[in-house]
Amino acid sequence: MKLPQELEHAIEQEFTHISLKTLAHATKYLREEYRTQGNNANTDAERLTAYAAYRMPGTFAAITHVLTELQRRHPDWVPARLLDVGAGPGTALWATTKIWPSLNSITCIENSPVMIALGKHLTTHASNATIQNASWVHANMRNTTPSDSYDLVIISYALSELPEKARNQVIQNYFEHTTHSLCIIEPAKSPRGSRVIEEARAKLVRLGAHIIAPIPKSFTYTLPEGQWLHFAERVERTHLERVVKKAFRPYEDEKFSYVIASRSEGTSYAARVILPPQTNRGYITLTLCAKEGIQKIVVTKKRHPKAYRLAKKLQWGDTLDAHNPLLALITN
Ligand SMILES: C[S@@+](CC[C@H](N)C(=O)[O-])C[C@H]1O[C@@H](n2cnc3c(N)ncnc32)[C@H](O)[C@@H]1O
Measured between alpha carbons, how far is 318 from 316 in angstroms, rounded to an integer? Predict the structure, then answer.
């Protein structure tokens, strides 16, 4: 996945007045601060701007993955109004308009004036009028009750910055103002983000939502010890990232967990690939989450040539519909 050119250009512009040394130092320092404190609340404005803009390609990729899944589950639906909660630099508004260019209103709730300034500044580079006209509300998501309802509400990489009790209240409050779908996304390099998503999913089930991805509420599953439910999206590194990280690889894998809750059922599926497929000489091992729980299937080229060809095309996070011949290989 690659950033839209306009956004990549907008981010590069942010760094024209920051030396690469400052940026490299800021990213190292802020990564550590985020890891230990769960937020960057005490950081100075220049460093925060640098880090936020620098992180955008990864979060953009995660949000785009989730919205693409939402579009698959509700192929005939087109949102008109977006609410981005804990919007940061506005990553979600860029991702949403890429998928649904006809979106006609965007509201961003954010409590950091530095983030709002960065977000607004980035939008000046957009050609899409809805992005340019996004409305930025300086508020704490915990005690803001939206005055309106929105077709699509996104809380991305922000929920885990709140304590558990507040998270449940925020989910309830914003789901009440969602007319169609709510997407919650968390970083998942470690199990922490996945745990926040599990809790959010449980809360949304109690609120009567349809969990349309990644795992419907009718599937029961327990992951093996040491594993957590997450997915990854490969992001092409920008020139800037390669220089700052002194990275040889032209890409990185953004790991994330998510839940999509809708007011109505989406298109159904029988299973989802929940780990990267393991390809060996002559066989592929797939780990699926299906109605019956977690299922490991081994697809051999010799014994199951047709299924093997299908398995070869599957990627981590893909779904299998009820007629997929691979399902016949589930043994329990
Ligand atoms: C890691 S950033 C993610 C930004 C953006 N959603 C994204 O995915 O790129 C988390 C953002 O949530 C904001 N935030 C944290 N707690 C908040 C609160 N109580 N109310 C509003 N915004 C909050 C932070 O200021 C920060 O900009």
Answer: 6
Rounded CA-CA distance 9/197 in Å is 32
Report which ligand 1 atom has the smallest distance to the Cα of 91: 9
Residue 26's pLDDT is: 72
What are the extents of the domains in the chain?
5-262, 271-329
Confidence grade of residue 178 (pLDDT, cut at 50, 70, 90): very high
* 110 Cβ closer than 6 Å to some ligand 1 atom: yes
DSSP 156-217: ES-GGGS-HHHHHHHHHHHHHTEEEEEEEEEE-SSHHHHHHHHHHHHHHHHTT-EEEESS-T
Q: Which ligand 1 atom is nearest residue 34's CA?
A: 1
Instruction: For residue 319, give every residue at least 6 positions away whose Cβ sits within 8 Å of its Cβ, in sequence order, or none.
Output: 72, 269, 270, 271, 272, 273
Would you say the CB of residue 86 lies under 6 angstroms from ligand 1?
yes
What 3-state DSSP class applies to 262? strand
Q: Is the CB of 161 under 6 A from ligand 1?
A: yes
Residue type, 152: L
Q: Does ligand 1 come within 6 angstroms of the Cβ of 158?
A: yes
CATH number of 5-262: 3.40.50.150
Q: Which of 114, 115, 173, 185 to mutate to test the pocket of ligand 1 (most atoms within 8 A of CB)?
A: 115
Locate the ligand 1 atom nearest the alpha carbon of residue 115 and give its number: 27
Using a 6 Å cutoff on CB, does residue 96 contact ligand 1? no
- In whole angstroms, give the CA distance from residue 72 to residue 74: 6
229-284 per-position pLDDT tens digit: 999 999 887 777 776 666 677 888 999 999 999 999 999 999 999 999 999 999 99
Q: Report pTM.
A: 0.93
Instruction: Report how far ligand 1's centroid is from the alpha carbon of 185 (Å).
Output: 12
